[in-house]
Amino acid sequence: MPVNILLALALFIITSCDSKSIQITGDDLTNSQSEITIDSQQALVNFLDGSSYRTVEKHETGRGGSTGYWTITFTGDTFIWDYSDVRGSGNVSFLDSTSFSIDLINSNHLVEIDGDSIVINSKRYNRVTDSAVTYFDSQESLRAYFEGARYKSLQQYETGPTPSGVSMGHWYIFFDINNSSSDEIKWAYSDIIESGSMIYKDGLSFTAEFFSSSYTVVVDGDDIVLNSITYRRE
Questions:
Q1: What's the CATH fold of domain 139-233?
Q2: pTM here?
């Protein structure tokens, strides 16, 4: 076979392989984020569905000057965005292959896609998996994360007897105010207030040790779960 025909055939095969590896639409997405082509609303939804992003840097959280990571989580064409001391939600809208908008009730924000990162209002968020999300990585960062924080139970529970019967109210968890070297945790439940210590366990949980009991406390964004009751950061 003539050499020029062989070269043309080789070039055709290489070109065909390259085209298949990078041309991905809404019906055919792979796990390689850097090779995805987003060409429609459905492709955008497939790309984002089930993913979470967290800011590279810590930013103000509106809690007495404290800082923390901002996050945004996508489910289908919806999102939940935790930034500053605000939780916003809404829908995503396809714009082009490298950008989309997140639409809240009163505002819209441009989101730029950059590989495994997105940029919202000049702040970069990295894509993470559930196993990669961490809020602290040592006893020191555990203290810093909770310094001065206060959590309130999502539901009301009994708070002790009164002349007219058992009263109901929220339970609380407090962390030592303005003391980043303290491990102290206070738990106000029913008509009891217990003081104890928090001990680093892993990036998503810690142990709360009280006088006669200890509990694993799981962190989930602005929520923590202690003894099967969920508390939200105020």
A1: Lipocalin (2.40.128)
A2: 0.48
Write down the CATH number for the domain with range 21-132.
2.40.128
pLDDT tens-digit map of 173-209: 999 866 666 789 999 999 999 999 999 887 778 999 9
Phi, psi of 141 (to 5 degrees): -70, -25
- Residue 102's CB is within 10 A of a number of other CB atoms, namely 22
The single residue listed with the structure tokens 């390689």 is 32
Place of tokens 């850097």: 34
DSSP annotation of 119 reads E
Q: Three-state DSSP class for 135?
A: coil
Cβ burial, residue 92 (10 Å; 0-12/13-18/19+) = buried
Q: Distance between CA 20 and CA 23 in Å, rounded?
A: 6
Rounded to an integer, what distance in angstroms lies between the CA atom of residue 89 and that of residue 105? 8
Burial of residue 33, with CB atoms counted within 10 A of its CB: 0-12 exposed, 13-18 middle, 19 or more buried = middle
